[in-house]
Design a protein that fits this description.
Elements (H helix, E strand, L loop, with lengths): L2 E4 L3 H8 L9 E4 L12 E10 L2 H8 L16 E2 L3 E9 L11 E4 L5 H4 L5 H4 L18 H4 L18 E4 L3 E3 L6 H4 L2 H13 L7 E5 L3 H12 L5 E5 L3 H10 L3 E3 L4 H12 L3 E2 L7 E2 L7 E4 L4 H10 L5 E4 L13 H5 L3 E4 L5 E4 L2 E4 H11 L8 E5 L4 H9 L1 H4 L3 E5 L3
Parallel strand pairs: 9-10, 9-14, 10-11, 14-15, 15-16, 19-20
Antiparallel strand pairs: 1-2, 1-4, 3-5, 3-7, 3-20, 5-6, 6-8, 12-13, 17-18
Length: about 425
């Protein structure tokens, strides 16, 4: 079986961080991986049709993601790689309900209590399976834990889309509605990420919102804001012309693409009627009751986090969605205190309060997709076979040069 696995060895990670290892040291591509098999009755064997490359995949390859993420990695090593998937159900476990062989499904990397069959932890009871303790290998103290290898011997976010077959839990799968093309269905996962982020701080119609970054997550945040009904003013910060066009198509009122930071700050201040002040040293600060009410940072690098804190209005809210940072070195977090800013983290997707009930984020994503089925067409800009993984990862890493939005692997029959 052709597949890309992630090889999480500390020695490799250290060499990679010291720039003593090759570009793809952390992954293993082989054509002779054994085809995986169902080991537990709640599992499902899936054959991918199309799998997307996420920015978090690239961060893992480069080892520039927070070390904290290692506690949420799968316990087997090397482990299956790639979590954005549309595939076909090939086999179901004996306790699987609601899925049949031949079903077309999308995939969530969140492996919660529900997936394993545990009694729900506090996070799951609160409708937050994305922070479930089972991801870190903690079950419900029942004998069921031992069936999965024992406490701390199971867990991790589920993955496997960069392969010809992978095994996952039924609770991670959502049926794809008939009539939704594979390439559009692939975007349900990043759209679900965006919906969850927007639900963390749903803008009112009177709010002014900035979305930092116009990669796929930034674009999906714009779509989620509009799809969830907010008529707020949306300003997208985009780097490239092709991103400007996509942001406007998905509902941004304005797009700012200044590469110069001083010009960017001035543009944001002028656009939002904010007031810029120059401290004794350092960058200017937007301070006062005017400016953006909410900033969704879909990049979340050290630099963009610092920008978010400089640009948010007093008493505003920053929602961190991206993962392009670990321990920050340049971000002036004192601004969060001086401006009394709410800083919210948003992780993956789970259950959301929606239309009077608790609804899976993927269901909302497909609901929005079906409302305007052509809106997301064309956002998968590049497709490659799994054998072309080096080219695919290179294109995904250099989006501006390649006018890339979503890069994906396609699998034949």
């Amino acid at each position: 079986m052709k597949a890309i696995m992630y090889d999480l060895k500390i020695s490799k990670a250290v060499r990679k961080k010291m720039k003593l290892a090759g570009k793809y040291t952390m992954i293993k591509y082989r054509k002779d991986w054994p085809k995986p098999s169902i080991k537990h009755p709640r599992q499902v064997l899936v054959r991918p049709i199309i799998s997307g490359i996420c920015a978090s995949d690239l961060h893992q390859i480069r080892v520039n993601i927070s070390y904290a993420a290692s506690i949420l990695a799968q316990k087997e090593n090397p482990f299956p790689f790639g979590h954005e998937v549309v595939g076909i159900v090939e086999e179901v476990g004996s306790e699987v309900e609601g899925l049949s062989v031949g079903d077309r499904v999308s995939h969530s990397p969140v492996v919660s209590c529900e997936c394993y069959g545990f009694d729900h932890c506090d996070s799951c009871k609160a409708g937050r399976p994305e922070t479930c303790q089972a991801i870190a290998g903690i079950g419900d103290d029942s004998p069921l834990e031992e069936k999965y290898g024992g406490r701390l011997k199971f867990g991790g976010f589920g993955s496997g889309g960069f392969s010809e077959y992978f095994v996952t839990y039924a609770g991670q799968l959502q049926k794809v509605p008939d009539g939704v093309p594979d390439e559009v269905a692939l975007l349900a996962e990043p759209l679900a990420v965006a919906i969850h982020a927007v639900k963390r701080k749903l803008p009112s119609d009177d709010d002014t919102v900035i979305v930092i970054g116009a990669g796929i997550i930034g674009l999906m945040i714009i779509r989620a804001i509009r799809g969830l009904g907010s008529k707020c003013r949306v300003i997208s910060l985009a780097r490239y012309p092709f991103q400007v066009a996509a942001a406007k198509q998905l509902g941004a009122d304005e797009v700012i693409s200044d590469g110069n930071r001083d010009a960017l700050y001035q543009n944001v201040a002028d656009t939002t009627e904010g007031h810029l002040f120059k401290p004794a040293l350092g960058k200017r600060i937007l301070y006062g009751g005017s400016g953006p009410d909410i900033i969704f940072d879909s990049v979340a690098s050290d630099s963009t986090l610092d920008d978010s804190l400089h640009l948010i209005k007093n008493n505003g809210t920053i929602v961190i969605v991206g993962m392009d940072f670990g321990v920050t070195k340049k971000t002036d977090w004192a601004l969060a205190v001086y401006k009394q800013v709410d800083v919210l983290g948003s992780m993956m997707h789970g259950l959301e309060e929606h239309n009077g009930g608790s609804v899976d984020t993927f269901e909302i994503a497909f609901e929005l997709i079906e409302e305007e089925p052509t809106l997301l067409e064309g956002l998968v800009t590049h497709r490659y076979s799994i054998d072309e993984y080096k080219t695919a990862f290179s294109v995904a890493s250099h989006k501006g040069k390649n006018s890339a939005i979503k890069v994906a692997f396609e699998f034949g029959e």
